[in-house]
Amino acid sequence: MLKYIESTGRTEEYAIEAALKKLGMDRDDVSVEVLERAKTGFLGIGGSPAKVKVTYEAPDEEEAVVAAAPVKEPVRVEREASGRERVKPAPAEVPKTEASAPAAEKPAAPAEAVMPEDDEKAAQIARFLTGLLAHMGAQAVPSIRKGEENTYEVELLGEHLGSLIGRRGETLDAIQQITNYAVNHGAAKRVRIHVDAEGYRSKREESLERLAVKVAGKVVKYRRNVTLEPMNAYERHVIHTALQDYPDVTTYSTGTEPNRRTVVAYSRGEHRSGQ
């Protein structure tokens, strides 16, 4: 059954994090509705916190979980000198632990950017990203390969790249956006540059597809629309594509950037998707 809790925080994100911590759930396991946005007030006076409604699926009451019966300790019977028998618990066996295998060493990142030879556009991307990463203090280098239809695929190589990815890929999106702008500025022929790190893009896409299917199942089961959190255009496209053939579900987007959201709606016998 669907249940929800309401949570407040200094910002919408703080309110959501507080609710997730209380529920012990991940962000992909819930849907969020912003009830009240945070207001800062004038000079810090008259402000109010953000308030969100976090909906999650709880097990139905009839789905009781049967606890496993406790394992009885083996006992040992000893006979005392008086002839009486005394029962003593057998010593507990200490589980044997196997020596953990040594962790495989990660290959070291190259010292310089990796790119196709005799490709001026790739060289331009490498120069810009190398300078940007150095300015950010990141120990990473770009690996560039030419894709199809004037596209370049860039993988940032290095260790501890979480700061370059950011929360839900926001920093990585910003790096991609500014790189596209810098390289294409004033150019007669534009190219598209995709920037990734530690395979984040594919992992995020898989996570969104799982979320889409899970939410669609709830929509059909309870015949109630669910509005997802704000997403960028690419992430909304992943949701629409994942559910374009899902029976009795339609998707559409609402709101304005950067708070545009995808709605997964119950619609028997109809299929519609929009950006």
Query: What is the number of domains?
Result: 3
Helix and strand composition category = alpha+beta
How much of the residues is beta strand, in percent? 25-35%
Strand order of the largest sheet: 1-3-2
Mean pLDDT across the residues is: 80
The biggest beta sheet is recorded as: 3 strands, antiparallel
**Approximate helicity band:** 25-40%
Q: What is the CATH architecture assignment of the largest domain? A: 2-Layer Sandwich
Give a quick precis of the structure.
With 275 residues, this protein is of the alpha+beta class.
Write out key terms for the chains shown:
Ribosomal Protein S8, Chain: A, domain 1; 3-stranded mixed β-sheet; single chain; 3-stranded antiparallel β-sheet; alpha+beta; 275 residues; GMP Synthetase, Chain A, domain 3
SSE layout and pairing:
Blueprint: E1 2-9, H1 12-23, E2 30-36, E3 50-57, E4 75-79, E5 85-89, H2 120-136, E6 140-146, E7 151-158, H3 162-165, H4 170-184, E8 192-197, H5 200-222, E9 226-230, H6 233-242, E10 249-254, E11 261-266
Parallel strand pairs: 7-8
Antiparallel strand pairs: 1-3, 2-3, 4-5, 6-7, 9-11, 10-11
Helix pairs in contact: 2-4, 5-6
